[in-house]
Structures are given as structure tokens and as C-alpha cells.
Design goal:
This protein has 11 helices and 7 strands. The chain has 306 residues and is an alpha/beta fold. Bound molecules: zinc ion.
């Protein structure tokens, strides 16, 4: 506590005093640009990792970066989502999982939790789709690999949960909301972003509208295990590319990290599709205007089926 109290003084004396204008501006209200959903894990700091300023991110944090489906819980998550979108007019959401997530470890050993941490047990029910998918489809993997896959899949599960909110649904339908999935790798400080078209994890900058293919070295990959670079590996992937209306509403990210181990297993896992040229935003792609976001959504999920 002493450290915290000293920190308060330092914050006021150094940071606040050199950012007078910012604080003056913030005192009149907030205008965050992004709703950032991430884990409570102490090793993550959304503002630090995105190198943003106070006031830039509206943050929801809890164990496992979970958003309970609409109506499934009377917690703060739903209210915060609604407020962020409706009241603050936020049009971009990031769901950010992370390597070595304790909540995801718990999810994979749910039975042990029921007695010792009943509240955590209850909470993790909102990630049941992740647990079941991993158990039923990846049980031949090592424990580390299953954890990586669970982390990656859970980001996608929570994006799906987000889409059960009427306000989210409606804004997606209008093409006024984008949802991104990220996984933060604690060991390297990197972030990888899920690309729904290729179902691969790519460097997040490749999803920017002004991205120049080739600018970014390589797609994300698991570095220390043979887990597939794409948790929801899709057979044939790209030919089922979802045609979203204009702005790509959903781009999630995830990749699973693991303890740093140098060699990239490029033989074992299906090679990660290279960062999609023009991944997402706008232009070019097979844009089929008659496809409603809901249909596109169904295809998107469908493509993840095994
Ligand atoms: Zn976590």
C-alpha cells in the first residue's frame, strides 16, 4: 500500500503536472474511441500496451475477458457495453485475451473449481462454448496447446456473446460497429489479431485500411508448441470468406502464446494463411450486397465448425 500511496504523489507531481491540458479537457467529459474488454490479470495494462492516453479507452475487465450473453447475468458487463455504445457512441470494440490466462486454465479444469471457488466456477459458465469446443475437438493436444487454443477460442466466443446484445446487433447491422479480437502475448509484449476471413492470427496492423501487404513480416504463429496457428482452423478457409458489408464488422484476434521457444513449427500445423491482403476494411473482396450481416454471421460461425 505504501508503494501505491507514493505512486499517487508521483503521479500528481509528474504526470498530472505535465499534462494539464489533457486533464482540463478530461474534466469536461470523456470521449473514448474504443471499448476494450480484457482480463483482470495484473500483467495487462490496456493503456500501456496500446500506448494510448487517459480517456482513450473505455475498459471492461474481469476474469477471462468474458461478456456474458445478453440476459444471462445481471452484472456490470452488459450495462457497460450498452453505455459504451449508446451513450458514448463508441464504434470499435476490442476483446483482448492473453497468454497464460489463469481463467482459461480454470476453464479447462472446471471440475476442480466448483468446490473451492464456486463464484469463479459460475462465472466461467459464460465461456462454456469455449470449453466444450476445445475439449471435444482438441483433446489430443498437450495441455499447453489446449490452453493456447482455449485462449484463442475464448476471444471468439466472447465476440459471439457480445453480438447477442441488441445494441451491438443493431450497430453491426448498420455497419457502424467493428469488433476486433486480440490476444496479448505476455512473454513478448506482442498482440496478434484474429482475421475472420482467413481464420488466422495476424499482426494487427495488417487490418488497418491503409495496410500495405508485405509491410508486415509474418502471420502469427504458435512459437513453442505445435498447436495450430488458428484455433478455429477452417478447412479450406478463404473460399468461404465472409462478405460483410463495407466496414469489416468483426475482426477478432488471438493466438496462443506459450513459453518462449525459438523454433517455429512450420510443418505440423496447417500453415497460417498469410496476412490477408486488404484484410477487411472495405474494398475489393467478394462483396455480396444481398448477404445480410446475420447471414454473414452465420457463415462466419459455420466456417468454424469441425
Ligand atoms: Zn486472464
Amino acid at each position: 500500500m505504501k508503494k501505491l500511496i507514493q505512486g499517487l504523489r508521483e503521479f500528481k507531481n509528474s504526470y498530472v503536472s505535465t499534462h494539464r491540458e489533457l486533464f482540463e479537457q478530461l474534466s469536461h467529459g470523456q470521449k473514448p474511441r474504443v471499448l476494450f474488454v480484457t482480463c483482470s490479470d495484473s500483467r495487462i495494462d490496456p493503456v500501456m500496451l496500446t500506448h494510448t492516453e487517459l480517456g482513450d479507452l473505455f475498459v471492461i475487465r474481469n476474469a477471462g475477458n468474458i461478456i456474458p450473453p445478453y440476459g444471462a447475468a445481471n452484472g456490470g458487463e452488459g450495462a457497460s457495453v450498452e453505455y459504451a455504445i449508446h451513450a458514448l457512441g463508441i464504434s470499435q470494440i476490442v476483446v483482448c485475451g492473453h497468454s497464460h490466462c489463469g481463467a482459461m486454465k480454470g476453464l479447462l479444469q472446471l471440475g476442480n473449481l466448483e468446490e473451492e471457488m464456486p463464484l469463479v466456477y459460475d462465472w466461467l459458465r459464460h465461456a462454456e462454448a469455449t470449453r466444450r469446443l476445445v475439449k471435444e475437438n482438441y483433446s489430443d493436444r498437450t495441455k499447453d496447446e489446449m490452453l493456447e487454443i482455449a485462449i484463442a477460442e475464448n476471444v471468439i466466443t466472447q465476440i459471439e456473446n457480445l453480438k447477442t446484445y441488441p445494441v451491438v446487433r443493431s450497430r453491426l447491422f448498420q455497419g457502424k460497429l467493428m469488433i476486433f479480437g486480440w490476444v496479448y502475448l505476455i512473454e513478448t509484449g506482442e498482440v496478434l489479431a484474429y482475421d475472420p476471413e482467413t481464420h488466422s492470427y495476424v499482426p494487427p496492423q495488417s487490418q488497418l485500411p491503409d495496410y500495405i501487404p508485405g509491410d508486415v513480416p509474418q502471420p502469427g504463429a504458435f512459437k513453442s508448441t505445435s498447436a495450430p496457428p488458428v484455433a478455429c482452423e477452417v478447412p479450406g478457409s478463404t473460399d468461404t470468406a465472409v462478405a460483410y458489408p463495407n466496414p469489416m464488422p468483426v475482426a477478432a484476434s488471438a493466438s496462443t502464446p506459450s513459453i518462449a521457444a525459438p523454433s517455429l513449427p512450420d510443418s505440423d500445423p496447417p500453415a497460417a494463411p498469410v496476412a490477408p491482403a486488404a484484410s477487411g476494411n472495405g474494398n475489393g473482396n467478394s462483396h455480396t450486397p444481398w448477404l445480410t450481416p446475420e447471414q454473414a454471421d452465420r457463415i462466419y460461425r459455420g466456417s468454424a465448425r469441425r
